[in-house]
Design brief:
Its cofactor is Mg(2+). Its EC number is 5.4.2.2. This is phosphoglucomutase (alpha-D-glucose-1,6-bisphosphate-dependent). One of its GO terms (biological process) is glucose metabolic process. GO terms for molecular function: metal ion binding; phosphoglucomutase activity; phosphomannomutase activity. This protein has about 550 residues and is α/β, with parallel strands linked by helices. It is about 35% helix and about 20% strand. It contains 16 helices and 22 strands. Strands 1, 2, 3, 4, 5, 6, 7 and 8 form an eight-stranded mixed beta sheet that branches. Strands 18-19-20-21-17-22 form a six-stranded antiparallel beta sheet. Strands 9-10-11-12 form a four-stranded mixed beta sheet, with helices on both faces. It is globular and about 70 Å long.
Length: about 550
């Protein structure tokens, strides 16, 4: 989805630029296929970068990109839906986005509190009563990042925008921002009030989720009747799942927690990878004697679960569970994951489930795009999933939807009961029986000092690549270590009954090091192999690795 440099400039009716607008490095706002920045002041060393004018310019640039992409009859304005999570800057940014879209001559449909997957779905839903389908969608979110951050994700009916699209939009936003005038900014406020409509789209989205579970259970009205399921929304946007999805299906949801949206996130980080968050939902399950616990991240594109004994289904275990469910429906299919999945998961998918594990790169968009590519060249894949909890299914338009992942889990519960199988969440636990899990699993972050003279004026990326190359050579000369025969990211090595992966971060001057082993002693041996190779790079901060090795 890359188009040429755009020529549309809104709000430029006067030649006098607005003098009080701060200079902004728009390109620093790019975070892969998302945009992220600081939206709220008050945190030392973190100046606000996502101001209202910056937001308005970005929204106008997306609208111009969309107009060029769609190339439709100018007499019928395009429609853009706008939604947000629970962040405290959400309303201010939603108004700025609305002004930016309206200034480009497009209609705006505000959804208010919404989930990221719902925003994509609004480009597919065909329901005129809810002004759907829209031509494009903007979700205002920064996932699980701290309260002062915010950002944007963009969608069309072809899916989320890619890195090149975001770069293109930001480049155009610079031109729009620099052409802002007082008169033009005032006009955009008037246009926004004229073109703005509001609908409760989450009603449509949740209704579709309910229908999916009922269908899987043989069109039973309340297939989850008697099941006690607690939800932890972490004060993000996922609180709807208890009342609007589980309760209509007959589930008991008492004991659900942190359902109220609160952008200060007072209870725990809304992140299924966070240990405190997983402990909170596990505790809720045990205290309420629930059958299942479900947890979401802030904007509901990631999720995890715990069974009745508080055993967690996240990271490798969530991938194993979803693989088991999908491979029952599509025997032999390829499961695409990110690069940090365990060797035990590969054995489980290929030997126990009869599927194929295609371990690819970090980044949910990378994983999804790879699954799409495999299908295009004749290799069937129905699931693309990251250890972070981003999971996308072919049947759901390759959208990473945390709520839909949990619907697949609920489908399994409901269909098992409809078949006369009792035991609550034991049905799910049994599906991952045989998954080999390491006793030791750590991720250590080795930071590159970009100001160190050893970089010799080069980029951190070049320096990181040099580190990886030397490590690769070091491994090849050590008979106790074996480089992974197929690997798409960094240097992955097996040895001492475990493995390590050193890779370069997608966006930051960091080399994350993942180590998994059957004992701490073996994990240390793997760590020492890395340490002996990377010690030749003085700009690399190995303190995290050194500390790990000292605990032996």
């Amino acid at each position: 989805m890359v188009c040429s440099r755009l020529s549309f400039f809104p709000a430029a009716s006067s030649t006098t630029a607005v003098p009080y607008l701060d200079k902004v490095d728009f390109m620093k706002l790019q975070n892969g296929s998302d945009i992220r920045g600081v939206a709220v002041p008050g945190v030392e060393g973190e100046p606000v970068t996502l101001t209202e004018p910056v937001t308005e310019a970005i929204a106008a640039a997306f609208s111009a990109w969309l107009s060029e992409k769609k190339k439709v009859d100018a007499s019928k304005p395009l429609k853009v839906s706008v939604g947000h999570d629970s962040r405290i800057s959400a309303q201010v940014l939603q108004d700025a986005v609305t002004r930016g879209v309206a200034s480009a001559g497009l209609d705006v449909v505000q959804y208010g509190l919404a989930s990221t997957p719902a925003m994509f779905n609004s480009t597919l839903t065909e329901d005129e009563a809810f002004l759907c389908p829209v031509d494009g969608a903007i979700m205002i979110t920064a996932s699980h990042l701290p309260f002062n951050r915010n950002g944007f994700k963009f969608f069309t009916n072809a899916g989320g925008l890619g890195k090149a699209d975001i770069k293109n939009i930001l480049e155009h936003a610079v031109d729009i921002y620099n052409s802002f005038t007082d008169e033009g900014l005032m006009k955009s406020k008037g246009k926004a009030s004229e073109s703005l409509k509001r609908v409760d789209y989450m009603t449509v989205y949740t209704s579709d989720l309910v229908k999916a579970v009922r269908k899987a259970a043989g069109n039973i009205e309340k297939p989850l009747e008697g099941f006690h399921i607690v939800v932890d929304a972490g004060n993000g946007a996922g609180g709807f799942f208890a009342e609007k999805v589980l309760q209509p299906l007959g589930a008991i949801t008492s004991g659900s927690q942190f359902l109220e949206p609160d952008g200060m996130f007072p209870n725990h980080i809304p992140n299924p990878e966070d240990k405190a968050a997983m402990k909170a939902i596990a505790q809720a399950v045990l205290e309420n004697k629930a059958d299942l616990g479900i947890i979401f991240d802030t904007d509901v594109d990631r999720s995890a679960a715990v069974d009745s004994t508080a055993r967690e289904f996240n990271r490798n275990r969530l991938i194993a569970l979803m693989s088991a469910i999908v491979l029952e429906e599509h025997p032999g299919t390829t499961i695409v994951t990110d690069s940090v999945t365990s060797d035990g998961l590969t054995t489980f998918i290929e030997n126990k489930l009869g599927g194929k594990h295609h371990r690819f790169k970090r980044g949910y968009k990378n994983v999804i795009d790879e699954a799409v590519r495999l299908n295009s060249v004749g290799e069937e894949s129905h699931l693309a999933i990251e250890t972070s909890g981003h999971g996308a299914l072919k049947e759901n338009h390759w959208l990473d939807d945390g709520a839909y992942l949990m619907v697949k889990v609920l489908n399994k519960l409901a269909s098992a009961r409809a078949s006369g199988i009792a035991g609550g969440s034991k049905v799910l636990t049994d599906l991952v029986e045989g998954l080999q899990e390491p006793r030791v699993a750590v991720e250590l972050r080795l930071k590159i000092d970009q100001n160190h003279p050893d970089l010799k004026g080069g980029s951190f990326r070049e320096y990181g690549e040099a580190v990886l190359k030397l490590l690769e050579n070091h491994v090849e000369s050590d008979p106790k270590l074996q480089k992974a025969p197929v690997n798409y990211e960094g240097v992955r090595v097996s040895g001492f009954g475990g493995w390590f992966l050193l890779r370069l971060s997608l966006h930051d001057p960091v080399l994350p090091l993942n180590i998994e082993a059957s004992s701490h002693e073996d994990a240390v041996k793997l760590g020492l192999a890395v340490a002996s190779a990377v010690k030749k790079f003085p700009a690399l901060d190995t303190s995290a690795l050194d500390k790990f090795l000292q605990t032996s």
